[in-house]
């Protein structure tokens, strides 16, 4: 699923794909915002993304659908 994180005072956003379920990501975002700590997520390639909760503008969680390969008829 695609994840996009908007950072305050930054024109760019973090964008990556992860295999974590949407519920797990929502729980991590809510906990980071409630505690004022950091949001820590990892992508499918093993990279880690750590964002301070105070800098999070928005988090967009994509749908959990597999990509299609080939032509659609």
Describe this structure in words.
- The structure is a single chain.
- The protein has a 3-stranded antiparallel β-sheet with strand order 2-1-5, with helices on one face. The protein has a two-stranded antiparallel ribbon with strand order 3-4.
- It has a single domain, classed as Roll (SH3 type barrels).
- Helices cover 19% and strands 37% of the residues.
- It is built from 1 helix and 5 strands, in the order E-E-H-E-E-E.
- The chain is an alpha+beta fold and 73 residues long.
- Strand 1 (2-7) and strand 2 (13-17) form a beta hairpin.
- The longest helix has 14 residues, at 22-35.
- The protein has one helix spanning 22-35, and strands at 2-7, 13-17, 38-42, 48-52, 56-61.
- It starts with a strand and ends in a 12-residue tail after the last strand.
- This is DUF3107 domain-containing protein.
- It comes from Microcella daejeonensis.
Compact overview of the structure:
With 73 residues, this protein is α+β, with helices and mostly antiparallel strands. It has 1 helix and 5 strands. The chain has one domain: SH3 type barrels, CATH 2.30.30.
Contiguous helical run count? 1
Return residue spans where pLDDT drops below 50 for at least 5 consecutive residues.
none
- The whole-angstrom Rg is 14 Å
| CATH uppermost class | Mainly Beta
- What's the rounded overall pLDDT mean? 90
Order of helices and strands: EEHEEE
CATH architecture: Roll
Task: Provide the domain count.
Answer: 1
* Portion in beta strands: 35-45%
Helix share bin: 10-25%
Number of strands: 5
CATH fold description: SH3 type barrels
Please describe the biggest sheet, giving its number of strands, its sense, and whether it closes into a barrel. 3 strands, antiparallel
User: How do the strands line up in the largest sheet?
Assistant: 2-1-5
Shape: globular
The structure class reads alpha+beta
InterPro entries: DUF3107
Pfam family, one: DUF3107
Organism: Microcella daejeonensis
Protein name: DUF3107 domain-containing protein
């Amino acid at each position: 699923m695609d994840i996009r994180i908007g950072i305050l005072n930054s024109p760019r956003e973090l964008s990556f794909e992860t295999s974590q379920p949407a519920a797990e990501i929502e729980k991590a975002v809510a906990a980071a915002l409630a505690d004022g700590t950091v949001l820590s997520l990892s992508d499918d390639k093993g990279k880690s993304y750590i964002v301070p909760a105070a800098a999070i503008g928005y988090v967009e969680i994509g749908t959990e659908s597999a990509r299609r390969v080939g032509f659609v008829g």
